[in-house]
Amino acid sequence: MSATTARITAVDTYDVRFPTSRELDGSDAMNPDPDYSAAYVVLRTSDGGHEGHGFTFTIGRGNDVQVAAIDALRPHVVGRPVDELCADPGSLYHDLIGDSQLRWLGPEKGVMHMAIGAVVNAVWDLAAKQQGKPLWQLLADADPEWLVSQIDFRYIADALTPAEALELLRRGKQGADERAATLLQRGYPAYTTSPGWLGYDDEKLTRLARAAVSDGFRQIKLKVGADLADDIRRCRAARAAVGPDIRMAIDANQRWNVAEAVEWTKALAEFAPYWIEEPTSPDDVLGHATIRRQVSPVKVATGEHVQNRIVFKQLLQAGAIDVLQLDSARVGGVNENLAILLLAAKFGVPVCPHAGGVGLCELVQHLSMFDFVALTGTTEDRVIEFVDHLHEHFLDPVVITDGHYRAPTLPGFSAAMHQTSLDTYQYPHGSFWAEELAQKEATA
To answer: What is this enzyme's class at the first EC digit (predicted)?
Structure first.
């Protein structure tokens, strides 16, 4: 069968879970025992050629629901011509967010929207492989008019019109080749959360913070919010370990009420936190605005749980955030993240994406690199989160050199996992989990 007639023949889903709770990796004030997990999807094609890989991130049992949500989208995908799909991923994006019966569960938020993001990202992975380019380069090379056609401006046109988006993208083309060369040579700035998990003792925090500085990171992040005295002690230890010139962000993971967020952040101000992340509910636009006014000069950052472009629009319109933290797998995939990047560019707010998890570093690097090369043209006050977990399970894992993400060069979205990892950690029948279950039954 020729490439021109190839179609999507299957949407295969996998419930993949890693036992990160054993070492308290990923622990924070709201999530004390996460098992980093991925609801993973593979688009198969009739010609047996390239496949599209995507996923959304959960912290364990949420995979049960997330995989079912992806499965519900299968009828929209199977049978589509591959060439048409790759030429216009927005066509599928619109169909998925427009399914009225599934849309009722949102609209454009929650489990269904994350499922849509997984499938849409898999299409972009397939499209980038078809073009033989890493996704960041596909986006950077793309015609601005075509990129605008991929964006849904419904509900955001009062803040960003298609004409404004087109002008931003045309302007971003100026000097793009030189910036792409710089990116390939130097990489994109990163910061690390690896020292700062709430479950780590002070010795491990201090050791990892010092190692981060030695490895070239100019910013680290600590989880806070469970106990103020504990946070003061940990922030003091971290600041002593990294010195006065390294930025140190803090992250409350939505733990506080508004007044509590202000009080707690001010209590930690002596340690010069660069930003306070997720100080309250991600849906509370006005609460974030209040916090921002009262904790300055500490910056306010949020976004990993912001559910769609509409809430991001309101955060920007309300002057509620200093730093926008988009997530590659929370919203409706690349198409919606293009809208969010353009909103941030219009409002002049730097994007410092959420990463970590399972594969989020692998995905989100492409979005920030596109933003640098062909949209904002700068990395000033912009960093991508890095967490040193689970990269070995990916065929094209992130590479960090001197505190910078190296630009991916392999075609695709860096989303594909090793088959051996799927065979080992698929839940509940992968070899790791099957052995766990057998041991529990033997000792019961």
So the answer is: lyase
